[in-house]
Specification:
Helix content is about 70%, strand content about 0%. It is mostly helical. It folds into 5 domains: about 120 residues, Methane Monooxygenase Hydroxylase, Chain G, domain 1, CATH 1.20.58; about 120 residues; about 160 residues; about 180 residues, Vacuolar protein sorting-associated protein 35, helical subcomplex Vps35-C (Serine Threonine Protein Phosphatase 5, Tetratricopeptide repeat, Alpha Horseshoe); about 90 residues. α9 packs parallel to α11.
């Protein structure tokens, strides 16, 4: 067979070469088994040697060679089992171990030697300790990287159950201890690693990436040595620390190969128990400082930290022993690693510190000083880098790090206690600061935590300043209105978490918030100041409820109402007329509920001033009139003089609306003020039926002036409903004659509307009104109380 040359380049070539080799393996394996079945041991061994000649090839790629190796090793298991079975029958073959060494080619010779040698160990034909040492040393004879790797892997596979381990194992096999197994695996591991590294330097330099890919495909062969070490039951933490790990780390450092160093340290972290790692943290972390600059140190350190975090969280593990100062170890070693190793970029350093931070928060949740210490070092790292060199990836990693304590503590009051948090947050770019601010606000709202003191309120609002105020580094482009609205609404919700149980302190908390929000610019005021107004109104109710315990409550209420007035004027100055009018109405109602007439009257006056000076749109005017009438109807603290002034003001204002339909509706609406309105002196409803009828007559007069027939009839029906309402409320000024007259007027007007959708709606409205009247008529029959509809003629 051909054994020299370059591996076939194409996939088809590789498949053909592999198929041919496997076919020859199967043929020779068949001959081997036939001879063994006939007890022709040497002939069987010779056929095995011929089969193993296929392992000398240089034409197969690592992947194809692996497939060939699997076929060969399966067949060799038959030979090994045959030798063990023959020994069980009493057929001893002491010379076979020496005879196979006369095989002509070294690769088949060593495969056979391993097969026979491990069979001898199993049947206790020779010294296990000597045979193992002999095998591992003889394998040095194959220095071709690919062949040598698979040969030594076969050695490891065959000796898996034969390695000296515990005392019971020693009784079974007679000699050797766990120290011999450690030495055996160390030797094999060292040689395999050298062969694996040597693969990198074979062939042309332009095939470097291809060789690296092939090496990565074979890495598990080297890692199997470490798995075997971890399987040894006789290794405890002390043995691992003194005998196992040092040999591995020496090999890692000496090979100076980035692929090997990275994989082997990852493998060490993965296969050995966490209890062992806790005893050897300094060794592993100091080894990281000696690694090649192309090694992804971040990946290694983060992997180790994640394992230890899971270990500490596992209730069955017992946690981190108190005598191991794990935070001190990691903070010192990782800091030195970041400062001294050239290959650790800022983003990698932040990722490692983020994992250390996670560890500190998991193992020492009450030690805020540990978190501050790490954040302080992070700040130092970021400040040491020129601003121009800090890219978006680094900022994202910093953002991720700053979210760690938020998620861990789930309490923003703890976050604001961290002295370095705000300065570190300031190093983020505008968008990342804003994202973190949103994250903080959402956490505050989700947890329901309240911020009780002015100082804490100022510190928290300072953290989320990028949401509240315009920033110097804020982009000048167009802002997405939907995102902006969502962010500002979130800030508005924050206001309702600024709550102190002490009334006087709550006032100072709100004053602090006002100082920040009024600097936010006109585009933010509409979202942030209204919640502040309602928070102040809530404080008004608290002061009023506690008035018996506070002699100065009235003066304090006056200060709060001045505070509310200032905020609403700021909103009005920003051009938000309709919003400020609504807030003045709410403020007036708030003052009314605590019986402060002068302040309530002043707020109503301010609402009317905004209406007259700044609201010009017809729909907005009608909406404002509706709100003003509804407000005045609810108020009960106004004296007769003030109430009369405001009633009249509403009526006059309604009469000045531009559109006749709006005039009609507003004047009819004002009738409620003369019926349901209350004054402070009597605290009873006015029930002024004469003024009610005057308003409704005025409304009908205005409706008559409408030029459009459909609008006119619609207004008549609406006024009729007002009349019916007051009639049912037993208003003596509303008589049957008035109702009949209006119904006849509507009946006379309906036929002139024509046939269209609008006319159909008007007819339906009138029919429903008449149905109500008929229903009331039926209820009136035989009834002596309430409004009497019996005499009302509908047609």
């Amino acid at each position: 067979m051909t054994t020299q040359g370059e591996p076939g380049s194409s996939l088809e070539d590789q498949e053909k070469l592999l198929d041919d080799a496997v076919r020859r393996v199967k043929r020779n394996a068949f001959d081997m088994k036939r001879c063994l079945d006939q007890s022709q041991v040497m002939d069987g061994v010779n056929h095995a040697g011929t089969m193993l000649d296929e392992m000398r090839t240089s034409l197969l790629s690592p992947k194809s060679y692996y497939m060939l190796y699997m076929n060969v090793s399966d067949e060799l298991m038959h030979l090994s089992q045959f030798l063990v079975d023959e020994y069980g029958k009493g057929n001893r073959m002491p010379d076979l171990y020496e005879l196979v060494q006369y095989c002509g080619n070294i690769v088949p010779r060593l495969y056979l030697l391993v097969t026979v040698g491990t069979a001898y160990i199993k049947v206790r034909e020779g010294s296990r300790k000597n045979i193992l040492r002999d095998l591992v040393e003889m394998c040095r004879g194959v220095q071709h990287p690919l062949r040598g790797l698979f040969l030594r892997n076969y050695l490891l596979q065959c000796t898996r159950l034969a390695l000296p381990d515990t005392g019971q194992d020693k009784e079974q096999y007679g000699d050797g201890g766990v120290e011999d197994s450690i030495e055996f695996i160390h030797l094999n591991f060292g040689e395999m690693n050298k062969l694996w590294v040597r693969m990198q330097y074979q062939g042309h330099s332009r095939e470097k990436e291809k060789r690296e890919k092939e090496r990565l495909e074979l890495r598990v062969l080297v890692g199997t040595n470490l798995v075997r070490l971890s399987d040894l039951q006789g290794i405890d933490a002390e043995c691992y620390k003194k005998q196992v790990l040092p040999g591995i780390l020496d090999q890692v450092i000496q090979c100076r190969d980035p692929i090997s160093q990275e994989y082997l340290l990852e493998c060490v972290i993965s296969v050995f128990p966490d209890e062992f790692h806790l005893q050897t943290l300094e060794s592993i972390l100091r080894t990281c400082q000696k690694l090649h600059e192309r090694v992804a140190i971040r990946k290694i350190v983060v992997s180790l930290l994640e394992r230890l975090i899971k270990f500490s969280e596992n209730p069955d593990s017992g946690g981190i022993p108190s005598d191991i100062l794990i935070f001190n170890i990691f903070s010192v070693e990782v800091s030195e690693l970041i400062q001294n190793h050239k290959s650790v970029a800022t983003v990698d350093g932040l990722a490692m510190l983020s994992s250390v931070l996670n560890l500190a928060l998991t193992v020492y949740p009450k030690e805020i000083s540990y978190v501050d210490q790490l954040l302080s070092f992070c700040l130092k790292c970021v400040e040491s880098v020129p601003e121009a060199d800090i890219n978006n990836i680094t900022l994202k990693e910093l953002l991720k790090l700053l979210k760690v304590p938020i998620d861990a503590y789930n309490h923003v009051l703890t976050i604001i206690k961290l002295e370095t948090y705000a300065p570190l947050m300031a190093r983020l770019g505008y968008q990342h600061r804003k994202d973190l601010s949103v994250y903080l606000c959402q956490n505050l709202i989700d947890t329901g935590i309240e911020i009780p003191t002015p100082q804490e309120a100022e510190e928290f609002l300072g953290l989320i300043e990028s949401l509240i105020k315009k920033q110097s580094d804020e982009p000048t482009g167009e802002i997405d209105p939907e995102d902006f609205s969502e962010e500002q609404n979130l800030v508005g919700q924050v206001v309702h978490r600024l709550v102190s149980p002490v009334n006087d302190q709550q006032y100072h908390v709100l004053t602090t918030a006002k100082k920040y929000f009024t600097e936010g610019g006109e585009e933010r005021l509409r979202y942030t100041l209204p919640p502040l107004v309602f928070a102040a109104m809530k404080l008004v109710r608290r002061y009023y409820a506690d008035k018996d315990a506070d002699d100065k409550w009235e003066k304090k209420l006056q200060h709060i109402f001045q505070f509310i007035s200032q905020i609403i004027h700021s909103i009005s100055s920003a051009g938000l007329s309709e919003l400020s009018l609504r807030l003045f109405i709410q403020a007036a109602l708030s003052a009314d509920r605590v019986h402060v007439e002068t302040i309530a009257y002043e707020f109503v006056s301010q609402a009317f001033m905004i209406y007259e000076e700044e609201i010009s749109d017809s729909k907005a005017q009608m909406s404002a009139i509706t709100l003003l009438v509804g407000m005045l109807e609810q108020m009960g603290s106004l004296g007769e003089e003030n109430h009369e002034t405001l009633r009249s003001k509403c009526a006059v204002t309604s009469n000045k609306l531009l559109r006749k339909s709006n005039q009609c509706r507003a004047v009819a609406l004002c009738s409620n003020l003369f019926w349901s309105g209350r004054i402070a002196e009597s605290n009873a409803h006015l029930r002024d039926g004469q003024r009610v009828v005057e308003c409704l007559r005025k409304a009908l007069k205005i409706a008559n002036q409408c030029m459009e027939a459909a609008a006119q009839v619609q207004l008549f029906i609406e006024v009729l409903n007002y009349y019916l309402y007051y009639y049912e409320k037993e208003c003596e000024s509303v008589t049957i004659q008035i109702l009949e007259q209006l119904i006849r007027k509507i009946n006379d007007s309906l036929p002139h509307l024509g046939a269209n959708e609008e006319a159909e709606q008007i007819h339906k409205h009138f029919q429903l009104t008449i149905q109500h009247v008929v229903h009331r008529q039926k209820l009136s029959e035989g009834s002596t109380g309430g409004p009497n509809y019996a005499k009302l003629k509908i047609i």
